Amino acid sequence: MKKIWFFLYNCLFIPFFWTLLRCSAPFNSKIRRGIRGRKGMMDLIDADLKKIKSKRRVWFHSSSMGEFEQAKPIIAALRKKYNDINIIVTFFSPSGYDHSKNYKLADIITYIPFDTRSNARRFLDLLKPTAAVFVRYDVWPNHLWELSERNIPAFIANATMRPGSARFYPLIKSLHRLIYNDFISILTVSNNDAREFSRFNLTHPLIQAVGETRYDQVWQRSTDAKKKHLIPASVLKEKKVFIAGSTWPEDEEVLMPAVKKLLEYDPKVLVIFVPHEPTEEALDAIEKQLSVEVKSIRFSLLNDYSRERIIIVDSIGILMALYQYAHIAYVGGSFRQGIHNVLEPAVYGIPVIYGPRHTNSQEAQELLRRGGGFLVNDQFECYKTLRKLLDDQKARTTAGNISLKLVKENIGATERFIEHLEKVL
């Protein structure tokens, strides 16, 4: 069966995928960046590898920036335990690479080559990793099969599997059974995830729940963030701060009417919008939705603050630190393709609001079940929830304590993962 899938994947899927990328590149800047970024990458990797000396090398692969956040606490723990280890980090997505290429704890940061058999062979000939860690779900068959042929142990960190996943469809399930069987360990977020992976009837890997490393990451990042002073105290004085983080236009369509009504009702409210992609187009779109009476200011101009009611963040990489100022947070993506990271505000002990598309996040579902998260389906529910939480300090504090408790209860997954990884180092 493996030979059949090997043929189908390499002779049909990969040529189709590559053709699709090439045809889409003229119309999609992210795809263009990904193709350009891979030109000459093998030679660059070869040159970089000559600068590092350790024979113990751990390769971490993440699809994008969100997944890499889950790898960071593992990398930091390895650095702390071992002086003679090299870390190689790869990304599939240009956004992940662009935002992380200056990460200081990695020796090499690059793209993963497109998943052809020859690329996988050359890449691993250069890297010669001691172990490979794929974060969450972004597993490329040729690279994994090549690792298996070389007896290089491969792990999945923070593995998740939804009961209704397309990976259980009959033919696709057969392919994924072959893929997952080449791992040495699949270390899942929860016991439910472990049970779902067991449905593949795998014979080789250890499947075990160790928890979610993002809890460790947000805990450490929140500690670091509290040392930063991004907003002057004079701006925040006597304000009730609502932060809408990682928003898309679909989120803003729901948020903006509720926010404008809220500002009319309560003069102490200060709103901070942090669009997921703060392009000039996205910033202009938010500003155009504001009425003449509602004054706004961009974050980069905050030194000229003059009692504006809305701050629009035109920078990247500061959302996590900004959440420390919030009394309530909204997490975006939940009216679009799927919610972003709810743990980033939850770690500060505040209520978290989001829309209906949150089932991609186990943390969002758990917050909702416990009472630290609040689901809104439209602008009316959004306004009602904001009013309730801003007016009722007791309810706000109770929900915030629930959010913080969830984070504290789940710290420690990094060490549990390291216990498995260091067996092969």
Rg, rounded, reads: 23 Å
How many structurally independent domains?
2
Uncertain segments: none
Q: How would you classify the helix and strand content by structural class?
A: alpha/beta
Strand content: 15-25%
Task: Give the CATH topology of the largest domain.
Answer: Rossmann fold
**Spatial sequence of strands, sheet with the most strands:** 3-2-1-4-5-6-7
Distance between the terminal alpha carbons, to the nearest Å?
32 Å
CATH class of the largest domain: Alpha Beta
CATH superfamily of the largest domain: 3-Deoxy-D-manno-octulosonic-acid transferase, N-terminal domain
Please summarize the sheet with the most strands: 7 strands, parallel
Shape: globular
pLDDT averaged residue by residue = 94
CATH second-level architecture of the largest domain: 3-Layer(aba) Sandwich
Number of helices: 19
Give the helix level as a range of percent.
Answer: 40-55%
Strand runs, count: 14
Description:
This protein is α/β, with parallel strands linked by helices. Helices cover 48% and strands 16% of the residues. The protein has helices at residues 2-24, 29-37, 41-49, 65-81, 94-100, 117-127, 141-149, 170-180, 191-198, 213-225, 233-236, 249-265, 280-289, 319-322, 343-346, 362-370, 379-391, 393-409, 413-421, and strands at 56-62, 85-91, 108-111, 131-135, 154-159, 185-188, 206-209, 240-247, 269-275, 296-298, 310-312, 328-331, 352-354, 373-375. β12 (328-331), α15 (343-346) and β13 (352-354) form a beta-alpha-beta unit. The longest helix has 23 residues, at 2-24.
